């Protein structure tokens, strides 16, 4: 297993293990930290000439320390899209710090996130041998989104993420809060 993958798994495992301890902590204003988990679907926009945009599927989880600040980890993979007679697909792992701004009395919130992502793009074009290969990039990544809390335990989000210099990701998702 690669070092970044081990680090991301350690961060997620550590976050999940600390959830039990953190859930009992009150933050003065009566807010108790809140873990969440969700799924998302969307589309990768890869900086590869002649490639279709692969459909993305992912899972994510996080923990809100207070109503504004939290942490989040995600994995997003894709199906195979057409690329010069062959296929192209992408995978990304990310760990982020998050900030949410809740619009008063609406259930709507804006979300920003900043962290590190590892993105891997595999291409197998058949037109030319040079059209095949793998590109891996670990870099600073971030995103912005808009969400709506349907009720205290369920929300939906639309998000745009910039994953380094060669990939963008647009998704919609749903999350359960515990």
From TrEMBL:
InterPro entries linked:
Beta-barrel_OMP, OMP/PagP_B-barrel
Q: Does the keyword Cell inner membrane apply?
A: no
Q: Locate the coiled-coil region(s) and give their ranges.
A: none
Output this protein's name: Cell envelope biogenesis protein OmpA
Native source organism of the sequence: Psychrobacter urativorans
Q: Which residues form the signal peptide?
A: 1-23
Please verify whether the record's keywords include Repeat.
Answer: no
Q: Where is the Outer membrane protein beta-barrel domain?
A: 9-165
Q: Which keywords annotate this record?
A: Signal
